[in-house]
Every structure is written in structure tokens, then in C-alpha cells.
Amino acid sequence: MSTNIYDTANTLEKELRDSEEYTTLVAAFNEVKKDEAASKMYYDFQEVQIKLQQKQMSGEQITEEEIAEAQNLAQTSGENDVIKGLMEAEQRLSTLIEDLNRIIMKPVQDVYQA
């Protein structure tokens, strides 16, 4: 009897939600939401990132001022311990997802590397 690949994917999704990396991310994000200063910095930075991505996708030139604003917000955010905790949690989860993606994509890579 063959396993339905979607059942496997749904199991993986549940296990990801139960992972230490994911639960740490959720806790870190909740800490950001509870801290007024950290929350404002986070959402301000997110807004600038989205604005820059939209400009880039539409082919508009990003100004030096916009780059400086994004860099300044990134630096200021990185100095906040609550946001720093979130960034570290995001990195750990990202590493896990990259590892899972490598495993999932191995059969496709094997096709092209054979």
C-alpha cells in the first residue's frame, strides 16, 4: 500500500509546528508584539521592506535615501534584544526549512546529476 504524498506533507507540516525551532519563533514573535518599542520597530522595518520590494518589482529605482532608511532601521532593530531574539529564531527555523528542502529536492537533483 503506497503512502499518499500529501498525507506525508501534512504530517511534516504538523511536525514542523511541533518543532523547537517553530515554537521558539512563535514565542519570540509574541515577545515582540508585547514590547511596544520592539513592535513598532518591527512593523516599521517590515513596511520599508515591502515598499522597497514593490518598487524593485515594478522596475522603479530605489533611492539612496530609501536604502539608508532601510539600513538604519535594520541596524536599530538589530540592537533591540527582543527583535534580536526574533531574528535568531527566524534564522534557526530558516536553517531547518533549508535542510528539509534539500532532502525533498534530492530526487529531482539526482535526475539532473545522473
State the fourth-level CATH superfamily. YheA/YmcA-like
Question: How many helix segments?
Answer: 5
Main CATH class: Mainly Alpha
Order of helices and strands: HHHHH
Rg is 19 Å
Runs in which pLDDT lies below 50 for 5 or more consecutive residues are none
Instruction: Report on the biggest sheet.
Output: none
| CATH architecture heading | Up-down Bundle
Number of structurally distinct domains: 1
Q: N- to C-terminal separation?
A: 29 Å
- Structural category is mainly alpha
Task: Please bin the fraction of helical residues.
Answer: over 70%
Globally, the shape reads: extended
Strand content: under 5%
Note down, in words, how this protein is organized.
This is UPF0342 protein GLO26_05030. It comes from Carnobacterium inhibens. By secondary structure, the chain is mostly helical. It has a single domain (22-113), classed as YheA-like fold. The chain has 5 helices and no strands. Helix 2 packs antiparallel against helix 5 and helix 3 runs antiparallel to helix 4. The longest helix is centred in the last third of the chain and has 33 residues, at 81-113. The two termini are 29 Å apart. 11% of the residues are buried. The model has no long low-confidence stretch (mean pLDDT 94).
